[in-house]
Design goal:
Elements (H helix, E strand, L loop, with lengths): L18 H43 L6 H17 L2 H7 L2 H18 L6 H15 L2 H12 L2 H33 L7 H23 L14 H13 L11 H9 L1 H16 L7 H8 L5 H8 L1 H21 L1 H21 L4 H9 L8 H11 L4 H18 L3 H5 L9 H26 L3 E3 L2 E4 L6 H9 L4 E5 L5 E5 L5 E4 L9
Antiparallel strand pairs: 1-2, 2-5, 3-4, 4-5
Helix pairs in contact: 1-2, 1-6, 1-7, 1-8, 2-5, 2-18, 3-18, 4-5, 4-6, 4-8, 6-17, 6-18, 7-8, 7-13, 7-14, 7-17, 10-18, 11-17, 11-18, 11-20, 12-13, 14-15, 15-16, 15-17, 15-20
């Protein structure tokens, strides 16, 4: 399949980008990517710290018993799921450069309030509200990526954004290790309470920064950081690539168009399997296993936990760059989850040498490494309409994430830890289904292409070969771009007419 491909150079810009486009892309990168990374970093510090707090004294302080930990994890997910729904409407109605930072600030406030929790019930309320105010961030940032970048530019930038997840989980471990070792008992507060104070001190300034640097969308831009010429150049290059840029309020007609389109339904299946194929990263199994060894101090347990997310940073960059430059989304998903499956098989067997379990836990963050690949794929397939894209990103993420509100309760009950036989078996099955569903979706997307002598059209099955060749030769009517796999595509300035040139070998693999 890849035999006729030249191995591409690792590059940030497309060879066809003009100097002015490269300057603009660099400006957008410096505005969007660092903020996305920082905010996602704080989000995952604030999400993952419940597991670190649990093994660092919170269990005893709040008298947590039985499945209280998995309940605290689940109530966060419930808040995150329910909190997303209004934004299918709000993303196109109001500037996202205000919406997202505003929510960031509020999640920082409720992260802080967790330090004062005195009961299980109070902590449950705080966790729900932290999830609620964090809800818009993940789909919102991918909506922003899809609003400014062409399809083949999203995954590798999303990869740097997604490093915030692994670094946040890693940082939470180090923060808790330091708080347990240095701050436990200071001013009468336990180390786990200091961790929440430190996390809030990090989160709130990042939220304030967002009001300044987030560029919004081309239709509702932040004019503090972007000029009129910047916005016009973005709109021009996106429209040439077949991206819609004009936002309008979501209507019932918009919803009906989404429902009639088969692609969101197929991508929803992929997304559901993805969320459940990586659920082991949030259930605390690795921490519970380290604690069960009874040979490490509390601070050492938190330090050792950092190994897995640290490796996850490498996995994320590898998979996202491979998707944009070599493999395309379906094969990048396969790469990530074959590695995940190897670790899961070991965890299901469990009765193996301890070194094998260390290896298995070190693979688990490969399961989330392809998240930006999948979201970039969704952005690409629904790029023609910002309104439909907002609905699809929110609804798919909401439904898929909602499944993880109850599956951990069934297969990862805290009382069965650290050997979650049901849990790891379930995740293994989901990882296999994820790979299969990704390739089935890829197959049916490619069936929409109509090929003529090495050029493949999609979106209009009635185009003719002569019309295609004429369109490709018109300087004003078509522009050359690259797809997710790096193959050439000509986007024609007519509704729903694009084609891909594959050097006479038929449709190029995405």
């Amino acid at each position: 399949m890849f035999a006729n491909k030249r191995f591409p150079r690792i590059r940030w810009f497309s060879p066809d980008d003009s100097p002015s486009e490269r300057r603009l892309l660099l400006k957008l990168d410096l505005l969007i990517v660092p903020y996305a990374f920082l905010a996602y970093w704080t989000k995952y510090i604030d999400q993952a710290n419940i597991n670190n707090a649990y093994v660092s004294g919170m269990q005893e302080s709040l008298n947590l018993q039985g499945n209280d930990l998995v309940n605290l994890q689940t109530i966060y997910t419930v808040g995150a799921v329910l909190g997303q729904l209004p934004f299918a409407y709000l993303f196109t109605k109001y500037p996202v450069s205000y919406l997202i930072p505003g929510m960031d600030l509020l999640w920082g406030v409720f992260t802080l309030l967790q330090y004062r929790a005195t009961s299980y019930e109070e902590m449950m309320a705080y966790r729900f509200l932290v999830g609620w105010f964090e809800a818009a961030f993940f789909p919102g940032m991918h909506y922003i990526f899809g609003s400014w970048y062409q399809s083949h530019e999203i995954a590798r930038r999303g990869g740097f954004f997604y490093l915030g997840l692994t670094l946040g989980t890693l940082t939470a471990s180090f923060i808790q290790a330091g708080a347990s070792a240095q701050l436990d008992g200071v001013n009468g507060l336990a180390g786990w309470r200091w961790m929440y104070i430190i996390c809030a001190v990090i989160t709130i300034p990042v939220g304030i920064l967002g009001f300044i640097v987030l560029p919004g969308t081309p239709d509702k831009p932040n004019r503090i950081v972007l000029s009129k010429s910047d916005i016009q150049l973005v709109r021009t290059r996106l429209q040439k690539a077949g991206h819609g840029v004009q936002e309008s309020s979501v209507s019932w007609k918009t919803c009906a168009r989404v429902l009639r389109n088969w692609k969101p339904w197929a991508l929803l299946c992929v997304d559901i399997f993805f969320w459940n194929a990586c659920v082991q990263t949030t259930t605390g199994g690795y921490l519970l296993w380290l604690k069960s060894l009874n040979r490490y101090s509390t601070s050492k347990v938190n330090e050792l936990f950092a190994i897995a997310p640290g490796l996850g940073m490498f996995y994320t960059l590898l998979v996202c760059f491979a998707s944009d430059l070599v493999l395309g989304p379906a094969w990048a998903i396969t790469l990530a989850h074959v590695w995940n499956i190897i670790g899961l098989v070991i965890q299901v067997i469990w009765d193996v040498p301890e070194s094998a379990l260390w290896f298995a836990f070190s693979t688990m963050y490969s399961s989330v490494a392809m998240s930006s690949v999948l979201m970039g794929w969704i952005n690409s397939e629904i790029r023609h309409s910002p309104d439909e894209r907002a609905i699809v990103l929110i609804v798919l993420n909401t439904i898929a994430q909602s499944t993880t509100a109850w599956t951990p309760l069934l297969v990862f009950p805290t009382v069965e830890g650290p050997r979650f036989t049901k849990g790891y078996s379930f995740v293994l099955a989901c990882a296999i289904c994820l790979i299969v569903s990704a390739h089935v979706t890829r197959y049916f997307i490619e069936r929409e292409y109509v090929c003529f002598d090495g050029c493949c059209f999609f979106g209009d099955a009635n185009v003719s070969r002569d019309r295609a060749i004429a369109a490709s030769d018109e300087d004003s009517g078509a522009s050359r771009d690259e797809t997710e796999s790096g193959s050439a595509v000509v986007q024609v300035a007519r509704p729903k007419t694009e084609y891909r040139c594959t050097d006479g070998e038929g449709i190029d693999a995405k």
